[in-house]
Here is the input.
Amino acid sequence: MFGFGSGYKTLSVDCLGCAVQSVASVHPDHSVTAQEQRDMITAFQRPNGGKIDEIEDGSGCFVASASSEWVLGVLKSSSIRTINDPVHIAVIGGTGLQSLPHFTHVATLKPSTPWGPPSSPISILHHPSPTTGHAIPIAFLSRHGLHHELAPHEVSSRANIAALRRLGVRTIIAFSAVGSLQEAIKPRDFVVPDQIIDRTKGVRPFTYFEGGMVGHVGFADPFDGALAEVVRRCGHSLEGEGVRLHDTGTVICMEGPQFSTRAESNMYRSFGGSVINMSALPEAKLAREAEIGYQMICMSTDYDCWHDSGDVTVEMVMGNMKANAENARRFVGAVLDELSKEEHAELVLAKHLEGQTRFAGGITAKEGRGREAKEKIAWLFPGYFD
Here is the structure.
């Protein structure tokens, strides 16, 4: 299936050549020359015999999947170029951070996974390295969908994390709006959390290991400590420019989509909770299973209903998000600037997590592993459990 959007129709074709030859008649503003056809076919004839899964236009972009390697290309006016660099860094945007301006958009992906499609198409953005000037690819995914159409319990977290890992991502910076459970954390403050308390209800699928394959990964420190240090340095560098940062904190992750009762809010305060959201889990757990370094940046939008400033409303949350949106984007941009430096290459590749799931997921004897479970895990970790 080759899907063209933004002025393209959808084509169902059996071969790449057919798709290439059809572009001129499908898109009213572009004709494909014979040389371009040859370039496209050459770009996607991989030596390993991989097949094309999908092509998606996004402001003149197309994408294909070839075996375990995703190859990106850009179709602009009358030229073709391919981008073979893996994408190691991703941003998962939540409420109030659904795009990253001032980054160059080069492709839009609509991947499929054994756990279904991700919450939104994945945008590939180019970000220049501050040290070399070379373009660093960044993946961006909207947690709640492009139009915020997914409730917290409807977010396809397994598909989101799986799609990003398959793309090559080993570092995720996640953004989330939160309610404050502490007087010191004021609305519009940022928090770099280091702990989570799980108050979800088991409604959300929260592991890749099920159906005949058992795996137990460590989760004592749910966020990546080394990534957190980078994030904190970047946040403090922006202080005095509208950014106020809290270096640590415990996130209470509740089920939602309703806000807390006053009794619950006070109970969470007695637990030692700093902030409360509906998004940290199972996202952080799945990232750990997928051997991806994960750090959340929280932005306080309100005092939860324990406070005498008034009950939480959507208007209150969105008003503070809008007022602080530029600071949020500058903060995330500063983090991406820093992570794009070559000195952080080992951290970005999450070498400290590499291989942990191979051991944790090997607990089930081969003869006891379910066929579907094996196939899904093999998609996520090719060769791990052969």
In short: The two ends are 30 Å apart (CA to CA).
